[in-house]
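Attaching the record inline, Q. Sequence:
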Amino acid sequence: MSKNPSQNRLFSANAHSDKWQQSLAQVALRFNKQYQNQSFELPTEVQAMPIFQEWASGLLTGRLVSPFWEIAKPQKNQHCLDIGCGVSFLIYPWRDWQAFFYGLEISSVARDTLNARGSQLNSKLFKGVELGAAHQLNYSIEQFDLAIATGFSCYFPLEYWSIVLGEVKRVLKPGGHFVFDILNSQQPLAEDWAVLETYLGAEVFLEPVAEWEKTIKAAGAKVVARQSGELFDLYKVRF
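Structure, as predicted:
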C-alpha cells in the first residue's frame, strides 16, 4: 500500500541516520491496512488460532484496551498529549474531561481520520493530530500536563523506549505524569498475541517486566501507579 507524501517524508527523510525508520514504517503499514479494512493474508495455521478468531470478529479489541483514565484522569484545562493515538479520539470520552488534547500518530490514515472528525466533535478541546514518531516529539519544553502512550510500546525494543521516555520528560511540565502500557510477557495470551501481530506485519518484543522497570528507573522516572490488564499493564510515572 502506498503512503501519502507526508508519510513518505516521515519515513525517508532520516532513513540513513535513524535506525528506527524501518520498524516505524512496518507498524504504520500494519495499522493503515487495518484502519482501511484491507485484508491480511495469513497462513492457515494462524487463522486456526483462537486468538485470530477473536481478532477477526472484533471481540479481541475490548480485551486489549488500556483505560489510562482509570489511573490518570485528565483534569479540566490540562494540556494532554496522546502519543500513538490511533483512532482513540473517536472512542474514549475525552470531551467529558474538558482537557485540551493533542495527538501524535505514525498512521496517516488515523491522522487524517481524526483531523477530519475531531474538530467536529469539539473544536475548542481538540488541538489536532500530527504525523510523527514517539522518539521525536516536535513540541515545546514543558508543554504538557499529561502524556499518554498506549498500544504500541511492544512493537519496539527497550532501547527505543528509553529514547521515548527522555522525549516525554522534556515535553512534560514539572509534576506532570506519563501513562503508558507495556505487554506483560507472563500473561497467558502474550505469546499467541505476539505470533498473530507478527503475521499481521508488526513484530512484537516480549520483554520481561523486570527489564521494563529497569528501563523506567534508568530514565529517572518513578512509578506512582500501576494497573494490570489481561495482556497489558498500565504504568503511571513521574519524572
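The domain at 5-238 is CATH 3.40.50.150 (Rossmann fold). The longest helix spans residues 21-35.

More tomorrow.
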